[in-house]
Amino acid sequence: MSIAMSGGPGAEAERVAQRALERVRRAAEAAPGTNVVALSIAGEKTPVEIPAELSDVVMAALVNLAAGHHVSVLPRDSELTTVQAAEVLNVSRPYLIKLLEEGRIDYRMVGTHRRISTGSLLEFKAQDDARAHTSADALVQLSQEMGIDQ
After folding, report:
1. What is the mean predicted confidence (pLDDT) over 113-129?
2. Are residues 99 and 112 in the same domain?
3. What backbone phi and psi angles, to 5 degrees, belong to 28?
């Protein structure tokens, strides 16, 4: 599964997510190497056990909620429409179609409709984010060298 982010949930949700993240992180750290993590639910006597892999997804979702992003969980082997894929990348649908036609993101045709694999889309997003960070780092270094960072 993968996490896709957009927009913002609101200040109260961010605070709740931050508190929950701290507790889930402590629970996961308290039991390294285990296959399950136990989570308590208000009003329930018995904790719910979830696979350790899912605790990573829960923590990633909480990190993003605490940072003010909306979160969606997508199975890596699913396919998205062009509208859904554009929302994940936070770009316009025409721009997404341009990326598809340039071969930068894999897709397949279903009749006259394009379907984008979630894995391919998230791989592109990770590469694009890495390029953006590299460019930003280069700009910071250049401004420091030129003495305009003060």
Report:
1. 91
2. yes
3. -70, -40
